[in-house]
From TrEMBL:
Known EC number: 1.1.1.31
The family this protein is said to belong to: Belongs to the HIBADH-related family.
Metabolic or biological pathway, per its Swiss-Prot or TrEMBL entry: Amino-acid degradation; L-valine degradation
UniProt domain 6-phosphogluconate dehydrogenase NADP-binding: residue ranges: 347-497
Annotated source species: Flavimaricola marinus
All copies of domain Enoyl-CoA hydratase/isomerase, residue ranges: 10-326
Protein name: 3-hydroxyisobutyrate dehydrogenase
Pfam families: ECH_2 (PF16113), NAD_binding_11 (PF14833), NAD_binding_2 (PF03446)
Keywords assigned: Branched-chain amino acid catabolism, NAD, Oxidoreductase
Catalysed reaction equations from the record: a (3S)-3-hydroxyacyl-CoA + NAD(+) = a 3-oxoacyl-CoA + NADH + H(+); 3-hydroxy-2-methylpropanoate + NAD(+) = 2-methyl-3-oxopropanoate + NADH + H(+)
Chain ranges of the 3-hydroxyisobutyrate dehydrogenase-like NAD-binding domain: 500-625
Length: 634
């Protein structure tokens, strides 16, 4: 979990999964990148501070369990999406136009280096341990770390990449992975001062001299051995009677994938020749994009975290078995599949492009996302349309549904879930019954997908303006992936709990809305018959104990308060028949859990009469006012 917020003069990002050593999820990468984009030109933010909860780790790497699950199922796209989005975040962090201070306590490993070591002010303390252990799971040091390795003094870059050795504070400062040593007891006060002032020079003033470095002591023998052009050159340079540093290196390298080590040497040398973050990430992605299908990555994960037998069966038994062709296969250009750091949009399928769905999808397109839509009737301009729901869902990172009822949602889910890539997100913005929302989420999980139910409030105007409120149910990780899309389509998103909680919040909210709109319309009709001026009525109630959203923001009286559908002949902003649908959902839910909702029941009956027996169909739900105005007490 990630929290990103503006505090005082800083933008502050906190990695907050201490129980998982703050391992980096796909959602976390997207969340960090979104925050960086938002703050780059925000004058309120003078600098960024990145810290982490707990004392054991800043970030112990990427959360690779989902990669394993999708990879063994033959789906390699999830891992590629994860790496692609992570690398874009790494580049954004490296190139951020304002100072970035990172506080790296405990373990900073693998993917954590991509968050913690690309800042401008990298702070370490007495517990800090930084390492790139990727070769131990059949991967290469990535997240832009091949550039950091290339810039390390002498041949320490090759040493660190091939061994995964852990740098303490002195080593990290010597090797260029950190900038400042500050005792960790001083960190809270320093962060408070940065928050108040935004003055990054306070970090310089707080720093102490660097501790001694073990690797600096070993560097002469490391430089003598690790200067070879290829992995084989390094092994052949090993002395018959190695010193302490080389003995340690041999022990660590014996655990690693020979193919990954050979590629690591190549990547470090390529980064040394062209030392830019863009080149480093491009070269790394060539390997990682192929790592599951052609490399040792899945076997490395199996041995390390699935079976935990610590006995991986690598594709090559030793370094001598790795050929030039093997290395070329993993590091040659990817052609059309190459990493693009400029393309920041998601690939989105959007099913249900009616009055609400079409403007929501248009806002996503305007934000740079690629949207493929499907609707049985509508064909909105500006959106690429598919021939079926399954076609719209194929290859999408996220599939959004905006459908009329739970029965249709269940039927569409049956079509799209088999077509979606494992690990993709089904984001349902329909308003349906809670049981349907939970059933669809269960089916998504069984298919290896994530799911969020997120009905909306705000009507057609909110969908067009991008000011909707989303009430979301689902896992924290799934909500995190959906959050950047909520930020485009709306002004607020609330994570209400597990699957179905979003629908529960929506029907409770709209039961209140239905009841209060009836009361507001009744009161205006009564005021008319009492001879009370409508403006006077509004001026009193909108600032008194009778105020409500129905009165203040959506006043049912034409010409009174902010512009509302009442000023447009009650042309629907939120149709009365949709209010009836939501009220009926509330009563179905109330019956299911034995809840007493007499006002909700009365409101349901009144809207049913208005829509089905009177002139309420195709009118706004606030058109209850002329209904009550024209009626008499019976």
């Amino acid at each position: 979990m990630i929290t990103a917020r503006i505090q005082g003069r800083i933008g502050r990002i906190t990695l907050d999964r201490p129980e998982a050593l703050n391992a980096l999820t796909h959602a976390a990468c997207l969340h960090i990148h979104t925050a960086l984009r938002d703050w780059a030109e925000d004058d309120r933010v003078a600098m960024v501070v990145i810290d982490a909860a707990g004392d054991k780790a800043f970030c112990a790497g990427g959360d690779i369990a989902q990669m394993y699950a999708t990879g063994v199922a033959g789906d390699f796209d999830y891992g590629r999406r994860f790496w692609r989005d992570e690398y874009r975040m790494n580049a954004a962090l490296f190139n951020f136009p304002k100072p970035v201070a990172t506080f790296l306590q405990g373990h900073t490993l693998g993917g954590g280096v991509g968050v913690g070591c690309h800042g401008s002010h990298r702070i370490i303390g007495e517990t800090s341990k930084i390492a790139l252990p990727e070769c131990g799971i059949g991967l290469v040091p990535d997240v832009g770390s091949s550039l950091l390795l290339a810039l390390a003094p002498g041949r320490l870059g090759e040493y660190l990449g091939l061994t995964g050795d852990r740098m303490d504070a002195g080593d990290a400062l010597h090797c260029g992975f950190a900038d400042y040593y500050i005792p960790q007891s001083a960190w809270p006060a320093l962060i408070d001062a940065l928050t108040e002032t935004g003055d990054w020079s306070l970090i310089d003033a707080a720093a102490l001299p660097a501790p001694a470095s073990r690797l600096a002591k070993w560097q002469p023998e490391i430089d003598a051995v690790f200067g070879g052009e290829r992995l084989g050159d390094i092994y052949r340079a090993m002395p018959a009677s190695p010193g302490e540093g080389i003995q340690h290196a041999l022990k660590l390298m014996a655990r690693n994938s020979p193919l990954a080590m050979a590629a690591t040497v190549e990547l470090v040398h390529r980064s040394r020749t062209r030392p830019t973050i863009e080149n480093a990430l491009d070269q790394e992605y060539r390997f990682t994009a192929r790592a599951m299908e052609h490399g040792d990555f899945l076997e490395g994960i199996r041995a390390a975290i699935i079976d935990k037998d610590r006995s991986p069966k690598w594709k090559h038994s030793d370094w001598e078995g790795v050929t030039g062709a093997d290395l070329l296969r993993m590091t040659m250009p990817l052609g059309d599949a190459a990493l693009s750091l400029e393309e920041t949009g998601m690939k989105i399928g959007f099913i249900g492009l009616g009055n609400m769905g079409a403007p929501m999808a248009a806002n996503l397109v305007a934000a740079g996302h690629t949207v493929t839509g499907f609707d049985t009737a509508a064909q909105p301009d500006g959106i690429t349309m598919a021939q079926s729901a399954a076609e719209a869902a194929t290859g999408a990172d996220v599939v959004i549904t905006m459908l009329p009822n739970g029965e249709i949602l269940r039927a569409v889910a049956e079509q799209i879930h088999p077509a979606m890539s494992a690990g993709a997100l089904h984001l349902d913005c329909s308003t349906v019954d809670v049981d349907s929302a939970r059933a669809v989420a269960e089916k998504a999980q069984a298919a290896g997908l994530m799911a969020v139910d997120a009905p909306v409030s705000g009507g057609i105007g909110g969908a067009t303006a991008g000011t909707l409120t989303f009430m979301a149910g689902g896992s924290a990780e799934a909500f995190g992936i959906a959050k950047p899309l909520f930020d485009i389509m709306g002004q607020k998103a609330v994570h209400c709990g597990a699957s179905g909680a979003g629908q529960a919040a929506k029907i409770c909210n709209n039961m209140i809305l239905g009841v209060t709109m009836i009361a507001t319309c009744e009161a205006f009709a009564l005021a008319d018959k009492l001879g009370l001026d409508r403006q006077a009525m509004y001026d009193v109630v909108s600032t008194s104990s009778g105020s409500s959203w129905s009165m203040n923001a959506y006043c049912p009286a034409p010409g009174i308060g902010p512009t509302s559908p009442a000023d447009n002949g009650y042309k629907p902003g939120f149709a009365a028949d949709l209010m009836l649908k939501d009220l009926r959902l509330s009563q179905t839910a109330a019956e299911a859990v034995d809840a007493d909702t007499p006002m909700g029941a009365v409101a349901t009956a009144l809207y049913a009469q208005f829509v089905e027996e009177e002139d309420g169909a195709d009118r706004d739900f606030s058109a209850m006012l002329p209904r009550f105005r024209d009626r008499h007490r019976s």
